[in-house]
Write a structure and sequence with these properties.
257 residues, alpha/beta, Rossmann fold, 2 domains, seven-stranded mixed β-sheet, two-stranded antiparallel ribbon, 8 helices, 30% helix, 21% strand, binds zinc ion
Length: 257
């Protein structure tokens, strides 16, 4: 009933904000110091389970960040100049807390939060047709997007097109670590079938360990980074940074041919 009323009265953006607010109220039940979320800078007795096959200690009760978002933020803060004013950044399907942190540092107009859904980004952008000129961005952040895009090769080409030489696309996806080849099946078309075949109802493929090769182009260097290995065991446990299936970072640097 409450959901129906909220849907009738509020915009999607307002509903998302309401959801966050309610989560923050509920998070009081998880007071403690066992886990730490670097996205909201708060500690908890535990994180919430999350996923179709629920993962334990996955989601921050306060800001709803996931394992991959906390690990990506560690990487961005420690290994990149994303937070240096003056960098031009295109962020697809922007994670709310990372978006907030970059925006606080970025010069006006330098940071673009892009999504197909206008409620989730500042600009509606189709990743296979990015409305920016060549060699425009220093960074692209594209986490858990390519598994949902039918024409993945076009999306990858487009990202390299708009990157400056030396610019970096930081890409993440769900990976079946037991499969050397990405799995795509044209007969799988409904959300129910996708859930069975790919593990999520809106994926159109399940990447295998060949994902890095799929990102490769003649004018690019691709590096697969398991950033959790650069953290201490204690830090990994406290942040709860996942099991690599969703958290590997592919650093794609555009080179000159
Ligand atoms: Zn948090």
């Amino acid at each position: 009933m409450i959901k129906k009323i909220a849907r009738a009265l509020l915009t999607e953006r307002q509903r998302n904000e309401l959801l966050i607010f309610l989560s923050q109220l509920k998070s009081l039940a998880y007071t403690g110091d066992t886990f730490y979320c670097n996205c909201c800078n708060k500690t908890f007795s535990k994180f919430l389970p999350y996923g179709n096959q629920p993962r334990t200690n996955a989601r921050c009760p306060w800001c709803l960040s996931l394992e991959r978002t906390r690990l990506l933020l560690c990487y961005l803060e420690r290994e990149t100049s994303v937070f240096t004013p003056g960098k031009k950044i295109l962020h697809f399907a922007p994670e709310r807390m990372i978006r907030k942190k970059i925006r606080q540092k970025a010069r006006r107009g330098d940071y673009i939060a892009a999504d197909l859904n206008p409620a989730l980004g500042d600009m509606v952008v189709d990743i296979t047709k990015i409305p920016f000129p060549e060699e425009y961005f220093d960074y692209i952040i594209c986490s858990h997007v390519l598994g949902h895009v039918p024409d993945e090769a076009k999306a990858i080409d487009e990202m390299y097109r708009v990157l400056k030489p030396g610019g970096e696309a930081l890409v993440m996806t769900v990976i079946d670590l037991s499969n050397p080849a990405t799995y795509e099946n044209r007969d799988v078309t409904t959300p129910e079938e996708r859930l069975v075949h790919y593990g999520e109802p809106d994926l159109v493929r399940l990447h295998g360990t060949d994902f890095g090769r799929r990102l490769q182009r003649a004018n690019a260097q691709v590096e697969e980074i398991d950033y959790s290995l650069r953290l201490t065991e204690a830090e990994r446990r406290r942040l709860s940074t996942g099991n690599r299936e969703r958290e590997l970072i592919f650093r794609c640097v555009k080179t000159t041919l």
